[in-house]
Amino acid sequence: MEYSPPPLFKQGPSALARLIFFVLLALALLISDARFRTLEIVRGVLGAGLYPLQRAALVPRDMFMGAADLAVTSATLRGQNDTLRKKNLQLSLQANTAAELGAENEHLRLLLQLSQRMTTQSIPAEIQYDTRDPFTQKVIIGRGAQQGIQDGSPVVNEDGVIGQVTRVFPMQAEVTLLTDKDQAVPVQVVRTGLRSVIYGTPKGDSLDLRFVPISADLQAGDELVTSGLDGTYPPGLPVAKVVRVDKQADTAFARVVCLPVAPVRGARELLVLHYQNTVPPRPADEPDAASSAKEAKAKKGAKSAEKAPEKNAKAAAPASAATAAAARPSSATATAAAATEKKAAPEKKPVGEKKPAGEKKADGRPPVEKPATGGIDE
């Protein structure tokens, strides 16, 4: 009969082995999620599943805030009512001016046959809570993919830019605020039209306008708006104001400190913009001058290499002709010499050969015939 210990005393793997296993598992999950986004679906499912629990956890806070709102005095309500009336009057005047300018703009565009450059839709949202990371400037809003929120959409309020949507869940979305150290927005100075890029700071209390030359015309109090050149933010949205401009002789760029126009940490109700830029896409990049020069040199070398054999053949043809011409006079000279020798040498005739009748002598007189003597020689 086998003996087995009671369940209380059963021992599995050691504590060190468990620690090493779970540490390796955590590292593998972190690396795979950071490189390949393997846990994105799991994160979305967990976010959707935990949404009711989050809402339930926020019920006490909502009840407390509701009780605080009920405790507001009538004097405060009257003051807010007067302020809202004045603001409503200003906004009505601005709306009338904007309507008039819009009608004039549309008339001019029709007159010049210009197409509309952008279309912007907005979705209202409310901030629910901040993220857990104290080193980032991020908040969670109560709108997600089910409500049409898209990744990368700009977030604004009535004063200006607040941030940008950086992560979307089914029922929620994460917004990176304008003052986050990793957030960058292309801006333009209203007074001079100077374009640059504004960044957040590690402290999250100011903004840094970078890549501004020392010679640029920039002053404290200048307003910065979105330039719209990145295709993400609509042009003309208020972003920040210049507070201080430090120009140092040992650097090529000035240090410009700005403050956001909108209350980044004080806003509660927001608008998520769905911006569609109808500008045509950029053309294909042209080759660099250095690569073009290299290609031209390579083509030139190939052409010269092709022409070299032809030049050598052409140079060899005159040389052979000259050689043949030089050889021809020697053969002609030899022929002339042979003819001269032939003329100079006397012709020998065989003994006993008689000259033909009628043949003249060398002096031109005819030959004299001798009478026959009967075979006796004189």
UniProtKB/TrEMBL annotation:
Record-linked Pfam families: MreC (PF04085)
Database matches in InterPro entries: Cell/Rod_1, Cell/Rod_MreC_2, MreC, MreC_beta-barrel_core
Domain Rod shape-determining protein MreC beta-barrel core: 130-273
Residue ranges, compositional bias (Basic and acidic residues): 294-313, 340-368
Sequence segments annotated as region (Disordered): 279-378
Chain segments annotated as transmembrane: 12-31
Biased composition (Low complexity): 314-339
The entry's keywords: Cell shape, Membrane, Transmembrane, Transmembrane helix
GO biological process, one term: regulation of cell shape
Cellular component GO terms, alphabetical: plasma membrane
Family label: Belongs to the MreC family.
Record's protein name: Cell shape-determining protein MreC
Species in which this protein is naturally found: Paraburkholderia phenazinium
